[in-house]
Amino acid sequence: MKKLIIPALLSLLLAACGSTGGPEQTAAQVEDRTAAPGTGVATVTTPSMNGSGIAALTDPSNILSKRSVLFDFDSFVIKSEFKPLVEAHAGFLVKNPQMRMLIQGNTDERGSREYNLALGQKRADSVRQALTLLGAKEGQIESVSLGEEKPRCADQSEECFAQNRRGDMLYSGEF
Amino acid sequence: MTRPVTALRLLLAALLVVVSWAAHAQLSIEITGAGAARFPVAIPVFENEGALPRAVSDVVRADLERSGLFSLIDLGLAALPERSVPDLPALRARGADAVLAGSVVPQADGRFEVRFRLFDTQKQVELGALALRMAPAQNRATGHRIADFVYEKLTGQPGYFSTRIAYVVKSSNTRYELQIADADGMNAQTALASREPIISPAWAPDGQRLAYVSFEAKKPVVYVHTLATGQRQVAANFKGSNSAPAWAPDGQRLAVVLTKDGQSQMYVLNADGSGVQRLASSSGIDTEPAWSADGQWIYFTSDRGGSPQIYRIPSGGGAAQRVSFDGGYNVTPRPSPDGRSLAFVARKEGRFQVAVMDLSSRQTTILTDSARDESPSFAPNGRMILYATESGGRGVLAAVSSDGRVKQRLSVQAADVREPSWGPLPK
């Protein structure tokens, strides 16, 4: 969260200094580079300047906005249908080595809460392992479990249980 | 490696933590099953009880009734003064096998002395006598203490009426509260209010602190929380998940489950978070540690053998022994205070039920006929087991006696209750 706010605030500050020549020049020196002619607004981009910038993470038409890997009952294997998703996120992490990810593993609600916490951890670890095998750095990712505590839906149906057996990928700023 | 805690995060955490001493939604208790042979006892109104702003003998009667072990013989309005021996044969003829005679004596300092004697009407002997000093507002605590006295004299076991229970109330997807109430459900107070889940509360043996797992940081973190002050400390926030705190009987250390080195494994650390040491290693999940009362063993759940089963390991480390063999899913081991039995949850044909295993015979009895039982917790006298279950579409707590006969249901209106933990006997 902090990593985005500070650069964003700095950029806004610099932009403001550049574009409003107020009636009073305060003691703060205006940075030369933002006062260059023809650049009235400084575009804020995150430190990743690689085509799939941070906006891609929340763009519904971009696969990176999809963050959940679903698992079969009693299983921790990433199904083939989720491989493109995992590859896309691994690619993003590789291209943006300063980005951090939190993977939260979840289970359906049947059984002991603490045992389910441990099962959810296995799901999160499975996603983390897949990402690091594809080149993401260990230090970029923390895998944790929410067990059965944060279900997507509350029905006692197989469809609902299936929605809850998942690993969710969160990026800096989202946790 | 602990996560860096910034000032902003601390502020957010502080905003989430509300120590509130206002009474909250009542935990109501109903009796749904009684003991096989209930002992008939008469607890008449105390002499001069009207001098108290609130009654004490009511609390005694309600406690004994709720235990499921006693039937209360009504003697009408007559009080039996403590200073004289009542007509025991006459009381026996009215069906009472024991009777409590009590008197309330105002003191010069504004307090009251409650003096009482318990008589056996069959043997025609006095079983015991006690006098308690109380401030007017202490009627409930005094009533519980008297009920403990009667219970102990008549059953040989310490009473649990002066104990407290901890549990989690979920009133919405963004409102969780860790609450503490008296064992009769009264005086519920919130120790922690949070937008994120709270699980696994565990009472320290001194009854002053609770350990628990909070998800307020979007991951599970173990805290140790001092109830009287609301001060709390992170006990474990390593990389990955931190959970399942269990106090050592010495109250100095906790067993916890950490994933910092890979899969969920058990470690022991000091209550302030220092001195982490690995307790056991396995190639599967090890979780739900629980110390035996004598501190010699740690019981736990592990799927190292392919399915979740109960094991135990010497508390100093060593070779683990498997304890459960019946069925494919046995979890949440909780040894009894006397060390002779083990409560746990067994899944049979898809139903999760509280069971008790006699540790010498290894014989197991299923204690409930519900389907979604969790988190069994022994009363400190070992006679009742508190657990979480579902009823009427919401989470409720229930209690069952260790022989399965006495049953109670404890619920909060319009909310889910879960994760109960029974506190220790008062010191």
Key phrases:
heterodimer; A: 175 residues; alpha+beta; 60s Ribosomal Protein L30, Chain: A; 4 helices; globular; B: 427 residues; mainly beta; Neuraminidase; Rossmann fold; 2 domains; 30 strands
Structure description:
Chain A has 4 helices and 4 strands, in the order αβαβαβαβ. With 175 residues, chain A is of the alpha+beta class. Chain A has 2 domains: 2-35, no CATH class; 54-171, 60s Ribosomal Protein L30, Chain: A, CATH 3.30.1330. In chain A, strands 1-4-2-3 form a 4-stranded mixed beta sheet. In chain A, helix 2 (83-95) packs across helix 3 (113-133). Chain B folds into 2 domains: 7-27 and 164-422, Neuraminidase; 35-155, TolB, N-terminal domain (Rossmann fold, 3-Layer(aba) Sandwich). Helix content of chain B is 10%, strand content 44%. In chain B, helix 2 (57-66) packs across helix 4 (139-155). The longest helix of chain B has 17 residues, at 139-155. The A-B interface holds A 1-2, 102, 104, 110-115, 117-119, 121-122, 125, 142-147, 149-150, 170, 175 and B 6, 8, 197, 199-200, 215, 218-220, 239-241, 243-244, 257, 259, 262-264, 285, 287-288, 301, 308, 329, 331-332, 345, 347, 352, 374-375, 419.
**CATH class category name of the largest domain in chain A:** Alpha Beta
CATH superfamily of the largest domain in chain B: TolB, C-terminal domain
Give unreliable regions of chain B as ranges.
Answer: 13-23
The assigned structural class of chain A equals: alpha+beta
Strand content of chain A: 5-15%
What is the overall number of helices of chain A? 4
Seen as an oligomer or otherwise, the chain set is heterodimer
Overall structural domain count of chain B: 2
Q: Which runs of chain A of at least 5 residues are low in confidence (pLDDT < 50)? A: 1-9, 11-35, 45-51
Strand content of chain B: 35-45%
Give a count of the beta strands of chain A, DSSP E runs of length 2 or more.
Answer: 4
CATH class of the largest domain in chain B: Mainly Beta
**Spatial shape of chain A:** globular
CATH superfamily of the largest domain in chain A: OmpA-like domain
